[in-house]
Automatic annotation (TrEMBL):
One of its GO terms (molecular function) is transferase activity. This is Glycosyltransferase N-terminal domain-containing protein. Keywords: Transferase. Pfam families: Glyco_transf_N, UDPGT. Residues 8-50 form the Glycosyltransferase N-terminal domain. Belongs to the UDP-glycosyltransferase family. InterPro entries: Glyco_transf_N (IPR058980), UDP_glucos_trans (IPR002213).
Amino acid sequence: MAATAPQQVRVMVLPFPAQGHVMPLMELSRRLVDHGFEVDFVNTDYNQARVLASLAARGEAGAAAHAGINFISLPDGMGPDADRNDVVSLGQGLPAAMLGRLEELIRARSTRWLVADVSMMWARDLAATTGVRVAVFLTYSAAIFTLRAHIPKLVEDGIIDESGDVQRDERIQLSPKMPAVAASELPWTHVGKNPESRRALLQSAIKDKQAYALADAIVCNTFREIESEALALLPKEPLVIGPLVASKSTSASHFWPEDLTSISWLDGQEPSSVVYAAFGSIAVFDTKRLQELADGLVLIGRPFLWVVRPNFANGVDEGWLDEFRCRVGGMGLVVSWAPQQRVLSHPSVACFISHCGWNSTMEGVRHGVPFLCWPYFADQFLNQSYICDIWGTGLRICADEQGIVTKEEIKDKVAQLLGDEGIKTRALSLKSRACASVVDGGSSHQDLLKLVNLLRKQ
């Protein structure tokens, strides 16, 4: 009688339902599948429909059925016309909408491990009801994690109140080699539409502190060489496996179809000539800021690739974009969504005008691209501090008295950035260290193997 093959370990992966959270957890899922795991990847119904529509638009409907990854979708508790960019409201409704169904799935599928996004820490309650073991995945930097844990001290010191409102605006730095951030730019300051939602966010962060200590593992999308001091402040020894950069197509995690004409267009440009501008999945510009950005890209006098996703600008339609495309001709290319990692690795790209989300930050670091930093909200201001103050691989872009980044500021800062050989050298050095961390024997690769061994344990 033939021997029975060992049963694959089943892992459930639970991202917060936003583009920047789904992407890195999909990358981790692919790595787990490569090591023999079966993964149940949980999207919301709303986002799964977007992924499938994106795949269909590119003729890749079958890509959703990645071998070893089973896609599950659940309701998010919001109405069909609700604003899902209001991440506080979205997050508050998820436990009631999902917990019961997740418990059923874990029991029915004999799931051993749950890898939960740090923004889904309520899911740790499933450990008590189902016996599942829980690994917390940080979708932002270790520095942000430690800053969130520092909230009670910030309140005690009178820097913020219990609603997160700034009482004394000063720069906060938890350790000499960690980034500093102004109190007015703390991660929760620009999140939520009212004081009540910010207060709820802060109270949730304080409550989650205990859950982190009880988790079976903390997994970080960073690498030790750039965040050693922040990592040392985590509540337990973390597994540091970043940067999680795609080794293959990640179409099954994108909410918009990637426009591959951007790659063929880059192929026709000179080395280190193109300015790449992209602001992630949530940032929204008004008409004035959009026009200044558009005029600034033209004023630079270099070829540029600009990502303008469908909901990027208020009051701007496709007609405006068509007029702009005609105006710039072959000097610039405007796309609705780009294969960003392929763009950043392209030899024609000279710099990255970025909102400084953690995924974009890690991708830029991995490919050695200098940054022009234009943060929007949440952790992006602290990431800017890493880039400009700690690593020295980019520059801040500054708004005027009216809060507008002018076309002249864009032109001048790009010229300053690309004329600074020190920034280029440091960006390439950081790239070398990032690459070394993920190859066989590197610190992140070793921690990935530790994670694999941990997940295989009963």
